[in-house]
Design goal:
Number of strands: 8
CATH architecture: 3-Layer(aba) Sandwich
Structural class: alpha+beta
Order of helices and strands: EEHHHEEEHEHEEH
Oligomer: single chain
Shape: globular
CATH superfamily: Gcn5-related N-acetyltransferase (GNAT)
Largest sheet: 5 strands, antiparallel
Strand content: 25-35%
Strand order of the largest sheet: 1-2-3-4-5
Helix content: 25-40%
CATH class: Alpha Beta
CATH topology: Aminopeptidase
Length: 167
């Protein structure tokens, strides 16, 4: 039996909580995504550095990584201080395996358990993206474009609220 902090993704994949030692690899993955790809320079410019992410993990944020044979292939991160789902990123060769859906679910559940009845994210305004399809399939609502970014929101379900009260 696996520890409660781990879940099994598709065969040979494990999803676990992100640790500070994972941050460099996660930033590298963010520069390799198929959609909404960022350069290392652009990430640094907006404050996404190893030191900053490690500090966030120690205070307000939580993240998860998906590993195959000990190698991180994707991750997600959320901000518990404002209810924002920050990012899901996968290496392109690992898409279409259900990993993104599991990483999304982990973040949603954690934010709702923190007391956020409604959580939010911003993404590309192009509704043809894989991200948009993932979010709408998981019951995220399209709330319109602001400053060139699409804002989406997700409300806790009665089941989420019950599990939050029990936890």
């Amino acid at each position: 039996m696996q520890p409660a902090s781990q879940t099994t993704a598709p065969p040979n994949f494990v999803i676990r909580e992100m640790e500070p030692r994972d941050v460099g690899r996660c930033i590298w993955i963010r520069t390799r995504t198929r959609e909404m790809c960022w350069t290392l320079e652009a990430l640094t410019k907006v404050g996404v550095t190893e030191a900053a992410v490690i500090q966030h993990l120690a205070t307000t944020h939580k993240g998860w990584v998906c590993e195959q044979d000990g190698q991180i292939v994707g991750f997600s991160m959320v901000n518990g201080s404002n209810g924002e789902f920050r990012v899901i990123a996968l290496l392109p060769e690992y898409e279409r395996r259900g990993i993104g859906r599991q990483l999304l679910q982990r973040g949603q559940d954690w934010l709702h358990a923190k007391g956020w009845s409604e959580i939010w994210l911003w993404t590309s305004p192009h509704t043809s993206t894989r991200a948009y399809k993932l979010y709408t399939a998981a019951d995220w609502r399209d709330c319109g474009v602001t400053n060139g970014e699409l804002i989406m929101r997700h409300r806790a379900t009665p089941e989420t609220a019950r599990s939050t009260e029990a936890g």
